[in-house]
Request: fold
Amino acid sequence: MIIRRAALLLSCLFFAAVQTARADEAKPEAPLSVVRVNVTNQPWDFARPWGKRPPYSRRAVGTLLSGNRVLVTAELVANANYVEFETPEGGQRVPASVEVVDYEANLALLKTEDTEFLKAYQPLEITHAKVGDSLAVWQLESNGALLVTKGPMTTAEIGHYPIDDAPLLVYRVTAPLQFRDSSFTLPVVKEGKLVGLVMRYDNTTNNAEVLPAPVIEHFLLDAKKAPYEGFPRIGISSASTRDPQFRRYLGLTSETTGGVYISDVLRGGPAALGGMEKGDVLLQVDGEAVDQEGNYKDREYGKIGVANLFSTRHYEGDVVKVAVFRKGTKKELEITLKHRPVESYVIEPYVLDRAPKFYVLGGLVLEELSRQYLKEYGNDWMKKAPEQFVYFDRQQNELFKDGPKKLVFLNRVLPSDLTIGYEELTQIIVTKINGMAIQSLDDVPAALAQAKDGLHKIEFDNEPRVIYLDAAQVTAEQSALQQKYRLPSLQRLN
Reply:
């Protein structure tokens, strides 16, 4: 009996010691620095652009920063109807709002007008991580307890964020995360300081893609300015020069071991305005040597893509000095970096927090092509969306030589007396209306004012090539068409 009691006592003491060790380990990582963030989202329906899809809810973990602001991913608040903060254990809730959002960097700052709600919380400072560091991912249990899962940081690299045209720095962490009802945005912490936010997680490999501290710091510094400027771009595409024959073709000598080939330069972009040309070989950026794959040796992360220098290390309006090899000669160029506004794209990479444009013409539903429309086909949209539209999206910089335009297409046909025989038409580009070239939906009203012989002539880039509508009948049946299909409006142009 004495031996059994002694064994039991030792077991209890060991359990208590383990619990104390775990508690001590969690102490520096578990201040009251996170809140639950509840969001109701309702995206627009790009297949039926006059309406919205059913609302849905998301729940996340927000990180408190200085100034009573809460940091989350931008994905969380995209097309948000309502945002609120909730205490970790639940029960107390207050309305919140989006202060600044950057969908390309996938970051958003939230705030609340209730100044008392966040008084008990301790803001987190921000620090950087390096490969090999042990990082902790924070989640919340249903009772508000902090669940801490640790894992090593395995790489730092340039990756694509949810908005495909935004290559920025990404940390990768291996950690066996458990599903929780607030797992949409998760803080990643090192020694009690924030190093990033989880933005993707693969539960088959336990690999998390983490939005890193340098990107967060860039966003926060930009967020102090009004208007918010965003991350700059240089406007180039590149290709490897590892092939020795390709290097000989370019005229690169054995003395030049590095350099990446500039395969494309965005017309009117920073690189083009700074004198860079397609066919150049980029050798240096701000004195940093560029290798054959387009990498440089970063002081924090080692070999990493040169896009990090342009987009994360620099800000809007910064001047970058680059060296290029062109036709046997080394040239020094100065390039002023600029953010590329989303509206400057022929096919906008995202349309969030705003309604899509459309125009209903006698039952013909016209819309501007956007990647948001293509994503109606799901995550595999590049394979499932119309092949021609996917091609246009990928080659949009080459579509127009005289400046950016939009592609207007026939989304669908609403059956009416005017559209008999055309009901099956869909997904063809509108080129002209009444002889006027259509370069955006804004051109449609002016084009319709030029009807000839009482007819509207609509031309397409594919069969049936031309459709004629009776102009007077289009006007006369507008109200009936709107009522029949319960449309809030027959057009939205702003």
In short: The longest strand covers residues 146-160. Confidence is low (pLDDT under 50) at residues 1-31. The domain at 236-336 is CATH 2.30.42.10 (Pdz3 Domain).
